[in-house]
Amino acid sequence: MTKPDSIDWGAIIADPRFQTLHRRKTTFLWGLMAFSVIYYFLLPIGAAYYQDLFKTQVWGVINVGILFALSEFIVAWGIALYYSSVANRDFDRMAGEIAADFAKRSGGAA
Amino acid sequence: MNLALRTRSLGLAAGLASFALPAHAEASAAGSYRWVTFLVFAAIILITMYVTYVAAKRVKTASDFYTAGGGVTGLQNGWAIAGDYLSAASFLGIAGLISLYGYDGFMYSVGWLVAYITVLLLIAEPCRNIGKYTLSDILAYRNDPKKTRIVGALSVVTVSTFYLTAQMVGGGVLVKTLIGVDYEVSVLVVGVLMLSYVLFGGMVATTWVQIIKAVLLVAASIVIVMLVWTPYGFSLPAFMQDVVSDPKVQARVAALLGDPAKNMTAAELGQRFLGPGLYFKAPIDQISLGMALVFGTAGLPHILMRFFTVPTAQQARKSVVWAMAIIGGFYVLTLFLGFGAAKLVGPANIAAVDAGGNMAGPLLAQFIGGGPDSFFGNFMLAFVSAVAFATIVAVVAGLVLASASAIAHDLYVGVIHGGETVPPQQQVRAARVATVLVGAVSIAIGIAAKGQNVAVLVALAFAVAASANFPCVLLTLYWKRCNTTGVVAGMVVGTVAAVGLTLVSPNLTYPKAVRAASHKVLDGEAAKRTAIADLIATGDASAIAKATKDTAALDKAVTKAKADMAKVEGQETSFMGLDKPLFELKNPGLISIPLGFLAVLLGSLLGRDKRSEDMWDEVYVRQNTGILVSKASSH
Q: Do B107 and A61 touch (CB under 8 A)?
């Protein structure tokens, strides 16, 4: 096994493919994170400051508040599935290429 | 543990709140059906013991003990995370809150699921790629190993002890209520059982106990929800219509609202049960609580530890997605459990058995099975009780394992012996010694804290995890400038801020305030008695009915005021020597989380650490690509 100390990590960082992976992941992850945090806090904020809206009945006795709380579940699951489909398809492939390249190089050196 | 904590607490574990049970109110099965309860409990204990026996043969190295050798699949780990996370507070507590307060209880459950988005997007995969056994492994990778392992281990033990105490006390009361054995005996049984899983079976047994518990919990909930919902042809509006039309529910809302309810019709009262604001009164507190949940889960050591049990980042991702499906699905089911219990059992009957509502689920199970006099009703009660018992044991096992690994792996192996020079057998022995130590201490604390309100401790565990662990782990993983000084500062400031703010918060008892409130009730008593007498004097039937109701309410309020006065007899100030809270929020997250982040930022900018800077490239490449990950999981 290659020792971590003997690896030129800076070279991998400088690799344009790593730069692309880093850029895409950063925008994607923090964007999704910001969206999910904002969407979540709309619930306690709405329940506290927009009670009349939350109490408005829309489906029999079911009101906006209940539907909004249920939508939180759908959105959370949606984010999880969306993230994992993008990660499974793109991020894993990009990271895999970099790792395979690395294994080839360090294998050759040893 | 002599904190005089306030009884009516809006804590995270509102679930495990006020477990102050009157002696006569036990939900245990009728005497003639006691054997059913014992049979179901025995069956579940036997299954988990068998699993532990099989697992014990596979535990040979430290890696086996702490992380099941990294050989758990994503699907298995997803179930285990759900089993680790759905503690008694969330399982019994949320159904109880919904049954007593309607909408607010359901809204409260949402934060517990959303928390996993943070875990999924920012924490799970990098942790798997970099860590080995513990939270401190991640911090120590690029920062000064000794310093960060010491503060990391202290924080892990702090968070776990808070959580553990709440679970032990809640578990003791729960088992006592459900099967009628003494509190001390139930704490001892929970402790010894948990200890035997962890001690002999390590993470392998703990994982399987958590999986079994999660499967039983979900299965039991599905059966109950089917029985509750089938009569409505699986229509949500029809079911809810029936809930809000129920006189028991309407009476509950009237009691909660007090005077403003007088001008409301029965239909309006019922509908109000589906609106917000019956439980959560202070919006800022609620947002503060949400922050502790959403960021604290990602800093809970026993949850983070679960990501070291899978072999790759892909499996870690898969396990969070499964966990979110199971945990979220369960909370959707609690919507029916909670509202179903409100409609069928009735909020007043639930609160009579346990003021915090924790018995809503078990009581609903008994009702739906045919009631307290039927075999099936008692079987259902026994089954749900046994699942609740398994829940506590499984959560406690995960917590003890996290604490033991911090002591044995971080402090003993990492700090005292300076790392990997300790032979494998000795590492496993250290882990087992630490387990016995933590287990014994948790049993002792559980017994010592008898009768205390421990709800605030679960809230505190999440607040410390969110204010100390989360900023340190997050910035170590994502911020180039982060270094040892920042991590040490963040851990110390985050923990001190969360604990300190809680100690001066309204969660504690303030004798002067209690006395003032009680005096107000007692002073107003005479005037109210006169008003009641006037009502009776009118001779009108409805007025007399109202007078009877008012008398009952007044008697109750007076008894409570007198009891409250007696409790604070001879005390002048709170545990911290204060007349009134210095800090108005019950949940410190809103202040302590930003403080924790600020401490890491300032500490990192002010201090310098060459190792933290030099290791950044390696940490960043590894957390993104998984290069060398096999090194972490191989043994």
A: no
